[in-house]
Amino acid sequence: MTRTSDPVHPASALAALGQSLWLDYIHRDLLDGGELKRLIEQDGIRGVTSNPTIFEQAITKSATYDASIAALAQQGKGARAIFDALSIEDVTRACDVFRPIFDMTGGGDGFVSLEVAPDLANDTARTVAEARRLWTTVGRPNLMVKVPGTAEGLPAIAQLTAEGVNVNVTLLFAVPMYEQVIDAYLSGLERRSAAGQPLEGVRSVASFFVSRVDSEVDPQLESRIAAAADRAEQERLGALLGTAAVDNAVLAYQTYEAAFGAARFRALLAKGAAVQRPLWASTSTKNPKYPDTMYVDRLIGPDTVNTVPPATLRAFQDHGRSVRTIDADVPGARRRLAALAAAGISLADVTARLEVDGVQKFTASFASLLRAIEAKRARVVGR
Fold first, then answer.
1. Contacts of 8 (CB under 8 A, 6+ apart)
2. Residues 6 or more apart whose Cβ sits within 8 Å of residue 269
3. Is the dihedral of CA 36, 40, 41, 42 positive or negative?
4. pLDDT digits over 121-144, tens only?
5. Which of 82, 55, 27, 75 is nearest to 375 (CA)?
6. Which residues are part of the catalytic machinery?
7. What radius of gyration, in Å, describes the C-alpha atoms of the chain?
């Protein structure tokens, strides 16, 4: 791979374009060894996101957490309580590491995200209660509590925003659902303002999962290419491979600009409200035929966050391009998505399926994590 000749540090160049680079990874080793601090100081990382899969890999695939699991087991805690303690400790420590960024940016950056248990995704009341508990327990202003962008999550987002909880809306795939998420955020701010509460300090991001869209659309395209009657049709369909995910995110950004440039938000802005930034998640490239930085390079723009796993971070540092791209070809994005629809591929169906699958996958990771912790706990207590 050829290293970019751009003398400006990639993360610094992104920051100049209005995009924050967050790390989609957390592990106690990063905290204990000072690596997280180095990533901030040398690599320009400005936040961290976590999810059940990340914690599953961190806790079950190393011995780092074993001593803590043993100590908590000796206190009589079960697997779920042990995970709760481990994740809260890691996130709280990470919040403290990022606090200087949070202070330096006036509360605009330096956030660490902790997710409500995924098995609560379809339960509004329990999601709100759990988010309140996490917010209070961590007790850091630069915490973001992750709430899924499901139908049941929408009233939770509004309620938590009204209470002043920073919310990271996760598992977003569809632009129409994103519109509802924006409405929930604005409704929460309006309720908070009507109650005489300050809007300053309330922050939110809306996490659009990107690469999974291509992983779902491309196989459908490939089957249509194989069945195409002539070469021209094959080439027309082939040109759509690897485009749906970015184009979907591009239209999401157009939705963001329209909503937060409108009178409804301007009235809140005058009272101190902040925009709900779009966050590009699931930005590692799943298809080895595609550039390994494509979900970073093609989604750069103001007021956005890109959360990257370590491998994608290293790739972007090596040969990424820091150029504003998010709105470079909006007509092309609309045209390609229309061509997908004409080919019989429903983006609405794709994103609906991905939302359900996303909740199921995180729930499965969470269950697997609890089983692994229980096995370690049982060995310690002898039963």
1. 16, 322
2. none
3. positive
4. 899 999 999 999 999 999 999 999
5. 82
6. 146
7. 21
